[in-house]
Amino acid sequence: MKWMILILGVLANASASVLIKAAVTSKVAPIQITNPLSIIGNFPLISGISLYVIAFILYAVALLYLPLNVAHPILTSGSIALVAIASVVFFGESLSMINAAGFILIVFGVVALTIK
């Protein structure tokens, strides 16, 4: 159960980042600095902020059951990995070979942290 809570936190965190990127790059409902109400009506932005709140709560609950030196690296690196993949899939951003190598090293590092 403790791992499921943390995995849900990772998914919420990464999804929040993707939604906020979609919100700020939207051509349909752009955010306008001169019109603060445009923020309120931007569903992806509000959803992304809400998911960050949920991710924070899940992370806090996960810390009840997991050590900080395990939970934090998993949350951050898991989110980094998922956001890197989502940025390529949803936004057409590039992922170089060195980026992919870094991603693989992060995954191995997190696995090493979780082994007792």
Main beta sheet strand tally, sense and closure: none
Shape: flat
Mean pLDDT: 90
Amino-to-carboxy terminus distance: 18 Å
Q: Provide the β-strand percentage band.
A: under 5%
Low-confidence stretches: none
> How many domains make up the 3D coordinates?
1
Instruction: Give me the number of helical elements.
Output: 5
Q: What's the total number of strands?
A: 0
Structural class: mainly alpha
Helicity, as a percent range? over 70%
**Rounded radius of gyration (Å):** 16 Å
Q: SSE string, helix = H, strand = E?
A: HHHHH
Structure, described:
The chain is an all-alpha fold and 116 residues long. It has one domain. It is 79% helix and 0% strand. It has 5 helices and no strands. The chain has helices at 2-24, 37-40, 43-65, 68-91, 97-114.
Descriptive tags:
116 residues, mainly alpha, 5 helices, flat
Give a brief description.
The protein is mostly helical and 116 residues long. 79% of the residues lie in helices and 0% in strands.
Describe the SSE topology.
Blueprint: H1 2-24, H2 37-40, H3 43-65, H4 68-91, H5 97-114
Helix pairs in contact: 1-3, 1-4, 4-5
